[in-house]
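Tutorial handout. Part one gives the primary structure; part two gives the three-dimensional structure as C-alpha cells.
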Amino acid sequence: MKKPLYADYLQSHIRTVPDWPQAGVMFRDITPLLQNPKTFRLLVDTFVHRYMDEKLDMVAGVDARGFILGAVVAYELNLGFVPIRKKGKLPFLTVAEEYELEYGSATVEIHTDAVKAGDRVLLIDDLVATGGTMLAAAKLLGRLGATVVEAAAIVDLPELGGSKLIADNHLPLFTICDFAGH
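Part two.
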C-alpha cells in the first residue's frame, strides 16, 4: 500500500513510551499528534479526503482513542458516530465480543441499535497491534448486519501481526504510518 502524503511528518509527532503499560511494550502515544493543531488537522484531513467519496452510513470508533479521531472524521463527513466500548461501559442493550491483545485479553461491546442491517461503516482506531480489537469491533458490526467498508488507523505495528491477521480475515485496512523495525 502506498504511504499517504505527510505520513513521515505525522509519524514524527508520535511519541514512543517504553515499557508501558508493562515491561517490553513500546507504546505509541498519539497525544503529541493531537495536541498540535497543525498535525491534528492534517491527520483528520488525511482520513476525510480518503473517505469523502465513499458511500458510507456511519463511522465507528474503538474505545478510547478511536473515539477522538472517529468522532471528528464522522462530523467532517456528515455521518453519525458509533462508539465501540470496553465491556460494561454502555448503558443500553449490547452485544459483546472477546479478543486477545498484545498484553492480555479484553471484551468490546456495541449497542444493539447502533447500526442497521445494510449500513456501510468506516471503522477507526488509533493503531493496529495484534489486530484483535479491530477484528472484534468488525465482528460486532457484522453481527448487527452492517458492512465494514474499511478499517482505518493512524499506526500499524506490523511486527505484532495485526495487519496480516486483518488481511487474512479479508477486512480492508488503511493506516497512515508504521513502526516496522522501530
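Part three, for discussion. The chain has a mean pLDDT of 95. Residues 55-178 form a domain with the Rossmann fold fold (CATH 3.40.50.2020).
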